[in-house]
Amino acid sequence: MKARTLFEKVWDAHVVEPETAETPAVLYVDLHLVHEVTSPQAFDVLRERKLRVRRPERTIATMDHSIPTTPGSKRFAIADPQAAAQLRRLEENCAEFDIELHALGTEGQGIVHIIGPELGLTQPGHTIVCGDSHTSTHGAFGALAFGVGTSEVGHVLATQCVLQRKARTLEVRVDGQLRPGVTAKDLILAVIARIGVGGGTGHVLEYTGSAVRALSMEQRMTVCNMSIEAGARAGMIAPDDTTFEYLAKTPRAPKGAAWDRALASWRALPSDAGAAYHRAVAIDGSALEPMITYGTNPGMALPLGGRVPDPAAIPDAAARASLEKALRYMDLRPGQPLLGQEINVVFIGSCTNSRIEDLRGAASVLRGRKVAKGVRVLVVPGSRRVKHAAEAEGLDRVFSDAGAEWREPGCSMCIAMNGDQLEPGQYAVSTSNRNFEGRQGKGGRTFLASPLTAAAAAVAGRIADPRELAR
Amino acid sequence: MEPIRRIVARTVVLPQRDVDTDQIIPARYLKTTERTGLGQALFADWRYDKDGKPRPEFPLNQPEAQGAGVLVAGANFGCGSSREHAPWALRDFGFRAVVSSSIADIFRSNALKNGLVPVVLDAEAHQKLLASPGAQVTIDLETRTLAADGLTAPFPLDPFARHCLMNGIDELGFLVSQSRAIDAWEEAACAR
Ligand code: SF4
Fold it and tell me: Which residues contact A268 (CB under 8 A, 6 or more apart)?
């Protein structure tokens, strides 16, 4: 048999009808994740067409995007009536169509891409979709996971399938060993800077190499999460013992004999020797530095010690115009060092970096230190489980003692839909995934970085190197 | 959906590349549970100043933009978030096609489901259109070509997407018609 990649194996195993020149493939979806923002119109379509949810047991919903994260906030005590109505609508839709919902205030609630893995619902070899582009996160387990729009949310609710043309594959090989202070976030920012925000279009990325193999599951999720920021359809990492150990501890992974059977099939998933990718890039993991963005898309990133690039040095007119516009928005000067840039807010959270290891990382920098005067620091755990785990370790006290806000789980300032937002002109160092204009609040300016770098900025009140603090 | 065979309309040019869906429609407008009325919010943060007044220099606010039906944008249009509110807003404003040299995957897929035709041209044809705002263009789905003054350029369009657009078929109906095959697949998967 022909040598196949991880992607091809998962794809082949889910083809209900193969693609032809005339029609795309009908691809079966094992797990469908749902949240309040991109689902109401899809449920409306089901009602209009008198359709049922085909597999409610393969569908799971949570509230994350538009909920408040104010400490101690009560269920539905939501200032914004539109957001409250949207949340109520999700509750009604889940009740009507018999879908498991992790509502605000319940134990299982959290950011959609945090709760799937922590419940053990995200499994190797699965196909997973959600009306959310960061569904790519789940690829860390060797699942084929991608974001879809609301129409396709309706397709999956009604038929448990999506129509897809098979993507091309791009191997992103990162060998070597990450140096101390360099995290998975830095790795993926370096990848995006290298291939560009449109560089992955039409492709599924597979991350390979010794630096990737050495990452924990949480770090792998950080990497796969941002695959979409390179324009990729999905990002995947082959499952291995790290994956299986993580899964064995989750409540909904298979148990007993079912586990043994699953494990045998998971072990067959990694790409075969000699399997061909359409494209490949290689990055030296040992040479990576902590990264930070300076512009208004995630590809505009530099090593922390770098200087803001000069548009005048860019020959391509469109690229030059794009950089000029970004620097105007960010109010940064060409040649300016990023280290030392004053900031107003630090946001530690989002589906990229709000898991327990991320919080431990941030706490390791903040422990025994104080947040700089005048800087607001929000720490937002990704889920209620993460929140409890952090509190059991005393991380909440580390953050509070330092002067940071320890908040309730949700998307929060990653998307600024719920009142957690930057003021116009403010600078933030953020562990989230998008530095687009206005993403964290109209007129707000975002530097994307790792939890370590974000915590160092919180202490310094300016962009700072976490490795200096560690010394 | 209404069948689309040909679009004859004037263009508006937004030359920036990497226009993300957060710019097309900022997240604060996503609290709606409807699909309609989003044209107001299209490019809100670029279109209006802080007092909510239209910025005269923004292409969509210029008099020639009134009644335009085709948006010509820089490369990698529609990157970022999967929000289908982006094509909903573009359609509601009156756009029927988006032209670029590359279009992000999820946005393209969402556009097709809403009768917004994604037209990807080669760099040369794209440049010409970027340089001539307000041009009258004809987009023909039958021949998969875009024609403007002194320019005829082919564009790729998936045969299935084209069939759906030209016949006003929506994909959900097609998928629902596959239910036998889906039943069979599920049965076989259970047995595995
Ligand atoms: S944390 Fe941000 S990127 Fe992740 S799902 Fe929420 S809004 Fe989207």
Answer: A9
